[in-house]
Amino acid sequence: xxxxxxxxxxxxxxxxxxxxxxxxxxxxxxxxxxxxxxxxxxxxxxxxxxxxxxxxxxxxxxxxxxxxxxxxxxxxxxxxxxxxxxxxxxxxxxxxxxxxxxxxxxxxxxxxxxxxxxxxxxxxxxxxxxxxxxxxxxxxxxxxxxxxxxxxxxxxxxxxxxxxxxxxxxxxxxxxxxxxxxxxxxxxxxxxxxxxxxxxxxxxxxxxxxxxxxxxxxxxxxxxxxxxxxxxxxxxxxxxxxxxxxxxxxxxxxxxxxxxxxxxxxxxxxxxxxxxxxxx
Length: 280
Hints:
The protein is an alpha/beta fold. It is built from nine helices and nine strands. The strands form two sheets. The chain has a six-stranded mixed beta sheet, covered by helices on one side. A three-stranded parallel beta sheet has the order 2-1-3, sandwiched between helices. Helix 1 (about 25-35) links the parallel strand 1 and strand 2. The longest helix is centred in the middle third of the chain and has 20 residues, at about 135-155. Residues about 1-10 have low confidence and may be disordered.
């Protein structure tokens, strides 16, 4: 069960939760759990139902595990929450979003407030007030964090073996910077497959392959391995930079890396975190 923690300090406590998920059993189980903790729970099973609930109910937080059909739907739901805005909650791009989508979100919010509000989202096109370097910022942060963490553990990136899950704006950039620092990227996984080359993968060539073919599958510079085999490759640094909840308990047991650096949002689930802590 996920946790919804009441806020403290000057913020108001959370009383009403809108829970949206297409798994009915999941919704009912978590509704019971939240209600037992004193929360009032509203439920929906898709984006259409969520918008109908938002039109006729006040709520303090929305927990969604469904895709909104359009960016405009997401902003309508955010407006119902009354927590969006440049001084409160600023959405950022993630999987299946880009500068164009963030521009649509900014435009929709602005249209509902009577003026252009560039600060309501990040990841916009530079021409609309976006930041230079934003696309590579997260991947660069992952690289810098890994470099400093490795240093504190007593090893340098030079010739360190790196495995990266995800080869988009985060994983791809992190892999690129690792290669520039003379680390060996020995394994990469994305939605199309998993690759391994103990001698190191040519990251620049793999990036070109991805642009041409839409994924890493079929890349000639590394051998294909199984999805679960990826988690057991010999490496010094493991970077989960794809989706949430990828590193669970069984996968955490298999990892041989000395260092796990999270690039995605919540890539390690609760059991995976417990296993990694137990392993030190």
